[in-house]
Amino acid sequence: MISYKPFYETLFRRNFTEYQLIHHHGVSANTLHRIKKGEAITTKTIDTLCDILNCEVQDIILHI
């Protein structure tokens, strides 16, 4: 199972909001909805989030 808990912790540490991701960085609201629901996102999306947040993959997802 994949957990996105690290994603929200990273957002908080980096002082980012979902609003900023959507309106300033072009992340789709659907992507954030999928993350909230624990649904799959692409590796390309994970790469994009890592670039935006200047973090590593483990700061976005956790395999349980």
Automatic annotation (TrEMBL):
<feature type="domain" description="HTH cro/C1-type">
    <location>
        <begin position="26"/>
        <end position="60"/>
    </location>
</feature>
<dbReference type="Pfam" id="PF13443">
    <property type="entry name" value="HTH_26"/>
</dbReference>
<dbReference type="InterPro" id="IPR001387">
    <property type="entry name" value="Cro/C1-type_HTH"/>
</dbReference>
<protein>
    <submittedName>
        <fullName>Helix-turn-helix transcriptional regulator</fullName>
    </submittedName>
</protein>
<dbReference type="InterPro" id="IPR010982">
    <property type="entry name" value="Lambda_DNA-bd_dom_sf"/>
</dbReference>
